[in-house]
Automatic annotation (TrEMBL):
GO BP annotations listed: rRNA 5'-end processing
GO molecular function: hydrolase activity, acting on ester bonds; nuclease activity
Compartments in which it is found: Cytoplasm
Gene3D superfamilies linked to this entry: YqgF/RNase H-like domain
GO annotation, cellular component aspect: cytosol
Extent of Pro residues compositional bias: 162-176
Protein name: Putative pre-16S rRNA nuclease
SUPFAM superfamilies: Ribonuclease H-like
SMART domains: YqgFc (SM00732)
Keywords tagged on the record: Cytoplasm, Hydrolase, Nuclease, Ribosome biogenesis
Entry's family note: Belongs to the YqgF HJR family.
Lineage of origin: Bacteria, Bacillati, Actinomycetota, Actinomycetes, Streptosporangiales
Length: 176
């Protein structure tokens, strides 16, 4: 995996925040599919990677994608309501993030608010001419792109990693 180093941005020293160098993955977890996106190594732009079917082998596929792209961090979407409340979907996302964190340790896994990412993705797809019936194949990837781009923008604005850590349950940590 690539080194998690901070490098100064072009306007460093002029109030600009630093951005860690390295590829990140964005993961939008649904009940049937998982959308995956990646950033460029400089952390400027998120692009779609693939849609992974939920079920047997989904965690291994996420691990393979992380290794293929030498990811320095995984950002998992945390679905919350507009009021900020978490429901069953958030519980499922937290559980999946904990499994990813246990599997990919020491690569950090972070939870990031994904409010309205799917709606934004659907609107973008419609605006680009993708018919509603054809959106199913790509909407999860598009939602992962929206999620990851928001996380990248948040890090660029604050200079801190986005969201909060997803800590694996104590029984799932390697070596315990």
């Amino acid at each position: 995996m690539k080194e998690d180093a901070r490098e100064p941005g072009p306007a460093h020293g002029q109030g600009a925040k630093t951005m860690r160098n390295g590829t990140r993955l964005g993961v939008d977890v649904g009940s049937v599919r998982i959308g995956v996106a990646r950033s460029d190594p400089s952390g400027l732009l998120a692009t779609p990677v693939e849609t992974v079917r939920r079920g047997k082998g989904d965690l291994e596929r996420i691990a393979q994608i992380a290794a293929e792209h030498e990811a320095i961090e995984i950002v998992v979407g945390l679905p919350t309501s507009l009021s900020g409340r978490e429901g069953q979907a958030a519980e499922l996302a937290r559980a999946f993030a904990a499994r990813v964190a246990a599997r990919l340790d020491p690569v950090p896994v972070r939870l990031f608010d994904e409010r309205l990412t799917t709606v934004t993705a659907q609107q973008s797809l419609r605006a680009s001419g993708v018919r509603a019936k054809n959106q199913r194949d790509v909407v999860d990837q598009a939602a992962a792109v929206v999620l990851l781009q928001a996380a990248l923008d948040a890090e660029r604005a604050t200079g801190a990693p986005p969201g909060r850590p997803a800590v694996p349950p104590p029984g799932d940590r390697p070596g315990r």
